[in-house]
Structure formats: C-alpha cells, structure tokens
Write a structure and sequence with these properties.
The structure is a homotetramer. Chain A is an all-alpha fold. Chain A has 2 domains: 49 residues, Arc Repressor Mutant, subunit A (Orthogonal Bundle), CATH 1.10.10; 137 residues, Tetracycline Repressor, domain 2. In chain A, 72% of the residues lie in helices and 0% in strands. Chain A is built from 11 helices and no strands. In chain A, helix 4 packs parallel to helix 7. The N and C termini of chain A lie far apart (58 Å). Chains in contact: A-B, C-D. Chain B binds a DNA duplex through helix 1 and helix 3.
Chain lengths: 195, 195, 195, 195
DNA sequence: GATGAATGAGCATTCATTCAT
DNA sequence: CATGAATGAATGCTCATTCAT
C-alpha cells in the first residue's frame, strides 16, 4: 500500500475514533490517549496529523459537516421545482441524520456546546448555501413563507436533530411512516398557507 | 436571616454558578474550584450540598427543568380550548427560552450532550405531562395531527431551542414579529391540515 | 505547630530540594515530581506555593541570592576603611561560596545559564549595592583602581565561583592557606599599584 | 565536492546548531528535532554522526574547547619570556572570549552546569598544558606566585568568562581600554609582588 | 548514507475530592 | 456547618530515539 494511503488511513481512523468517543463521553471526558488507542496509534502520532486536541475536534467537525452537506445535496438539481427540490434535500438530510447517526450526533453535540472554535463553526455553515438559495427562490415564487432563514431552518431541518437524538436514546424508533409525517410537518411549517 | 435561608442561598449560588460556567465552557472544562469561587464558598462546601460533580450538574438540570416547566404552564388552564391552550403554553415557552437564555442554554447543552445521567433526564421529562395531555385531547378532537408526541415536540417546541442558540450566538435578534412567525410555523406543523 | 509554620516548612523544603536537584542534574533534567518527592509533598502541592516550574526556580534564585548577600555584608560596617571593609566582605563571600557550596553552586548555575528570568536576575543583582558603594569610596580615595565595577567584580569576587566549582568537582581542596592566597590575588588585582 | 566533505559539512552544521540553540535555551530545552532543522538534516541523521544527545553535546564541547585552546596558543612560542608569553596567551584568550562569544558562552555554560560528562570535561582540560607549563616556569623564575594552578587560572583567566557573559547580556561593552585594564588586573593578581 | 514517520516514556500541570481544624 | 490546604490520579503534549524505505 502506498505510504500516502497509510497516512490517510491513520488520519481517518483518528477522526472516526474522535467521533465515537466524543459521542459517548463528551469532548473533555475523552482523553487523547483513548482516541489514540482506538485508532491503533501512539498518542504522539495524533500530533503528526493535528496540532492539538482542539484542532483535532475542529477538523473533525468540518470534515463531518462537509460529508453531511455533500450527502444532502447530492441528488438535488437546481432545475427542480422548489417543492420537489426541498423534498429531495429534506429526505437526504433525514436519511443522513437518522441512518448515519454517529456523525449526526457528533454534529448535534458540536452545535450545542462551546466545544468548537467559532471559526470552524462558520466554516461549517457555509456549505448550506444551496438550501438557502432554494428558499430564496421559493420566497420569490410565493411558495415559501417570507421569513428569516433561521426560522425556516429551525422548523424545516433542525427538528430532525431532535428526532435523531431521541432515536439514539432509544425513546423512539423512526420508521418510514414517521419520516413521512415529519416531512409533512416540516413542509407545513414553511410553505405559505394559501396553497 | 434564618440559618436555613443561608444554606438555601449557598445552594442557589452554587446552582447559578454552575449554569453560567457550564454555559461558557462546558461541563468538563468547568472546575469545581471555579464554581466554588463564583459562589463565594470553599470547594469543600460544595460537597456538603451535593455528592459530587455529577450530582451537582444532575440536580442543577432537574432544578432548571422544573423552573422551565413551571413557567411554561403557569398561565395555562385545562379548560382552555386546545388551540388556545397550545398558544398560551407555546408563548410562555418561547418567553422562557428567549428571555431567560442562560437557563435555556444550559438545558440545551444538557439535552445534546452525554453530560447528564439518564435518570435525571427521565426525571426532567416528566414535568411536560400537561403538554402531552393537551396534545392527547387535541388528537381526540381532530385538531392535532395523530402523530407521535416526539414528532409534535420536535416541530412545535424544539425549534425554539435552535432559535435561542442562534440568538445567543448573535446570528439573529428575535423581535415580536419573529416570535409570531415562529408560532405560526409551530402551529402549522402540528395542526391537522383541513382546518 | 502553627499551621503557618507548617506552610513555611513546606516551602523551604521545596526550595531546598530544588537547589539540590538542580545542582545535580540541571533545571530541565529535574522533574517537578522529583522535587515533590524529595520535599515529601505531592506534586500538586508545589503549585500551592509557586505558580509553575519557572516561578519556583526564579523564587529559589532570589531567595538564595538574598541569603548570600545578607551573609556577605553581615559583619561589614560602613565606617570601616576601604581595605578593611573589602577584606571583611571578601572573606564572608569566600566563606559562603566555599562552605555553603550547595547554595553557591546553584547561583553559579543560574548565572551562567538561560535558566532564570531576566527580571529575577535583575532582582538578584540589586543586593550587591554595599560592595559597589565601598568600591566607589575606594576609587575616590585612590585606593581602588578607577575601573568599571564589572571589572572589579570579575577579578575580586567572581574567581571564588570558579574555585568553588573546582572544589565541588574534587579537583582541589581549599584550605586556609589557599583562601589567604586567593585574597591576596583578589586585592592585588583591584588595588591601585603604587601602594 | 567530495562525498566526504559533504559529511563533514553536515557534522559541522550540527555542531554549530547545537552551540547556538544550547546558548539560547540551555541543553535540555533544546530538542534534537530543532537542532536537526537548524542544520537542515533529518533528526535521524544526527544519529549517524553521534551516538545520542549526550554524545552530541560532549563532542561539541571537546571540539569547541580544542578550537579555543588552539587559538589561545597559536602565537605563543616557548622561547618567550614568562611575562611576554603570558601576555600573548592572555590576549589571545581575551580575543576569543570576547569576539567569538557564541563559542565562549557555550563553554561557560558547559563549565557551570552538569551538562557534560566528567570524562569530556577532563578531555577538554588537557589542552591547557602549555599555559600550565608557562606558569611552572614562571614560578621557578620567581615571577609567578608559587600558588596552585587552580588559583592562577581563577584569577588570571576565568574572569574573562564573567566579562564575556556580562557583555553578552548587554551590561557592558568592552573596548580596548577595558581589555588593557583587565590584563593589568590579571597580571597583578598572579605576579609576585616584589617586582 | 539519509530520511520522515512513528512511538513509548516522561513531564508539567490540573482537578475532583478529602480531611484536619 | 464551613473551610483551605493537600493530594493522587489523570491529561495534553513533547521528545529522544528507532526503523522501514
């Protein structure tokens, strides 16, 4: 195997270990030594790939966020109608949050905690642009309520994080029917009423 | 002042300090010594009121959660109509989350983090019963969608946490108009469509 | 024993351990844990008395330097003649350097190493003032060569450090006769020639 | 360039880097990786030329010491008179210490610190033999005081180290006049008095 | 010879918790 | 009740050294 590939593998193993351990115990309760052990490297090796613990978790956040948005928009096409486009994106996001729950949970923890640099947070937000563009189009067409994007996100997207956490905790198991109901609630909350 | 009152004051000071410090730095980045200093007591004194750090944060969570739900239901009366009752409760919750943001932020961090005992979490949820009862009535009357309470909560209530965090971070300032729009989205997402 | 005394004892034990260990191994090869062990306290206890390792060694330096100069000038009296005063001071310094060699060695290491803050170094120098005053008087009276104090110190006092180190290393054992010879050399090197 | 020359260059670069870095930060605060970087080689390469860090610093010491003594005796000739010979040697040493202060400072640090093997220290001393021989001759001729060579060195030579350090620290700038004064003090301190 | 990636051992420092007063 | 001094057990991070290439 190429030497470069080995490096990438190690980096990935570290990112993966970070996600899993931080999910289970939180940032500060996760020692570097444990991350190293889980990734099968020496603690010192982490510092070949990341500057320090904060950098490790920042980079992990950015990476997961990128993966998340890449997945979200993969099957979306700007020529779709607003409603169709929203449904496509929403379902991809639901898919990601509910199936790839390790990653989703990590993001939720980062987003509700002073665990991530403000800079990395900004970096992570940027990738949502296509959704904001879709909403802008929807507003112009009178299909989406003319309200702040923060409100739209709060009602259309963010509830999925709550559902993911609930499922993760075993409080509920989300089947196809739930997803459909959730989608309807999401759409109802942001579409203009007189449709 | 009664000696008992002095004790209560110290306990309250500890709870308050815990909230503020955990909000700013996270649970594990908040040393007991700092909490003690902010509450103007000796570190050892904390252990007269709480078993250990975990107990301190658990109890803090339960206390804040109780305060939260007490506030939420204070002006609600079971004789109100479902829609009226929901609006009353929702607006109280919005009030709490957006105005008493220290407390609300603390709850959000607890709810998205492995920081709280599962037991304490359960304990905290119980207090929401009146809202669940209201929803049950709404479903029977055909006013509220016949879907899982988790879904209802995810769409009707939880978005307020996201908005509170956004406001806390300075991304948005929520005025009366935003609140009204948010309420409409919340209601749209859970009411049955054919009204 | 008073609680205050116990504190002072611990602080002193730490200072003493620092001197001995740094003498044997150097600053960076002396772990805090070893210092703690030798002083019979926990590593954490050091940080109750000193801010960090650098602070510990700085404070140790200042303390030893103060002890050194206090000893040096103890039997000196400003009414003495220049020659008599110099002899008194010189012999006290010789006494200190050659008998209290642990302390003297520590000072020598600090003075020839980037181990001490520049600030602490300045602080340490201040105490030599009486000797400089004596030399000033000597120059005015035409007894001491009219040359820089640095030169006077280099020839009159500093050689004792070299002799102390040589003795410490076992290369020479300095008896009363050596001391007298050394004193003659010191005095010859700074007195004006035409006496 | 011959392959051998390239090797010598690397070794020299390592020695040079060691001196500069140890001067600035001390032995233990100077990582091998930094030495390697400054010498433009890989850390691993150091181990092709030296057994380990201790060996590197030992060899550096011996090399610098040899350079020092070579310089010191270069213009000395055994046929010179004792006084003339001493002046010649002394002035060469002063030259070295005050102009090649990087090297001189490194020696001073080694000589006042448990940084060097006792063996390497012995090795370094050997080269001073011509000076000791000169002194022996001087004693026989009644020109030099009949006292221990350690005393002679302490007063005649060692003060230059102190002056070099003072100059290095910016406390004094030594001009030709200072040097002449220093020489007089040195000579006064070791010559017999009745000349 | 030369390297850069890798590491185990070690270090300064912190912190939850205890205990004598 | 209340405390501040004390501590053992971590933890993040560094570094001399090795080794596959």
């Amino acid at each position: 195997m190429a030497i470069l590939q080995k490096s990438i593998d190690k980096r990935n193993a570290l990112i993966k270990a970070t996600i899993e351990l931080v999910n289970n115990a939180g940032f500060h309760a996760t020692p570097m030594s444990k991350i190293a052990k889980m990734a099968n490297v020496s603690p010192a090796t982490i510092y070949l790939y990341f500057e320090n613990k904060q950098d490790l978790v920042n980079k992990t956040y950015i990476e997961v966020k990128a993966e998340y948005t890449k997945y979200a928009f993969e099957s979306y096409d700007e020529n779709m109608s607003v409603e169709q486009g929203f449904e496509i994106i929403w379902k991809r996001i639901a898919d990601f949050k509910l199936n790839d729950s390790e990653n989703a949970m990590f993001l939720a923890q980062c987003d509700n905690t002073p665990m991530i640099d403000e800079l990395s947070r900004q970096e992570g937000i940027k990738h949502l642009q296509p959704l904001l563009d879709l909403w802008a189009r929807g507003k112009k067409e009178g299909i989406i309520k003319p309200i702040s994007d923060y409100l739209l996100y709060a009602y259309a997207i963010n509830p999925l994080s709550f559902l993911m956490m609930s499922q993760k905790r075993g409080a509920i198991i989300l089947d196809r029917k739930h997803i459909e109901e959730a989608y309807q609630s999401a759409w109802n909350s942001i579409k203009t009423c007189d449709q």
